[in-house]
Amino acid sequence: MTQLLRHAYGRFDNRLPIGPVAWSFHDLLWIHQGRVRIVVEGAEPLELSAPDGVLILPNTPFSGTAIGSAATASVCHFRVAGMTESGLKRAPKKERLDLQALVRMALRLAEEDPDNTKRRVRLLETILDGFAAQPEEKPLDHDEQRLARAWALAAQNLGAMRSLVDVAALINLRESAFRTLHRNVHGTSAGAYLRGLRMSQAESLLATTGLSMTEIARQVGYGHAETLNGAFRQSRGMTPGTFRRHAQPFA
């Protein structure tokens, strides 16, 4: 049985660090904006950059502080009968932006419909599923490794990836050969994959920063904010500004 205790927005301030403390209940800590350092006794410090979160299990001594002046966070305190393990679990990287949307929905329910316990518990359980152990990935063959390396490097410096020519050059291929390699491995268009990377990174920046549209466009590889606006509207069915208003807790 799950017992909800508290779910609310909060704030990390580097002038007022938290802990060391150990709760007797579960603590779902989510970073919505900014960066936070979490330290668990006997482990290396963990740095969380929005969107990111950790599930801190009961009786786990930890401390936390903002990296920079402050960070916007939320906490969900709850108890689950029969769960006695300690430690923490981190949200998987690929699911963090989606999990943040679920966390925000849960926060809205906690504020607007706090007595709807059954729905709130179901939503919390869905969020917690995202923290479950991920299946081991199968080993990649040579072509898969080469392609994965190119896309990983491109994602790290997306602002410099003006076209597939730039991505292909990362592994010393011509654009046509790179397109063929991607289609052979994934069965999809390399151009569509690059647009997906741009949109995912734009979503993350819109949801977790206050950067201008011009700066976000630059960081994801578009020359102008207008280009980002058109691509985002075509892909997501709304403008970047509309997405930001829905995604940020205090936008």
From TrEMBL:
SUPFAM superfamilies: Homeodomain-like, RmlC-like cupins. InterPro entries: AraC_XylS_family_regulators, Homeodomain-like_sf, HTH_AraC, HTH_AraC-typ_CS, RmlC_Cupin_sf. Keywords: DNA-binding, Transcription, Transcription regulation. It holds the Pfam family HTH_18. Residues 148-246 form the HTH araC/xylS-type domain. It comes from the Bacteria. One of its GO terms (molecular function) is sequence-specific DNA binding. This is Transcriptional activator FtrA. The lineage of its organism: Bacteria, Pseudomonadati, Pseudomonadota, Alphaproteobacteria, Rhodobacterales.
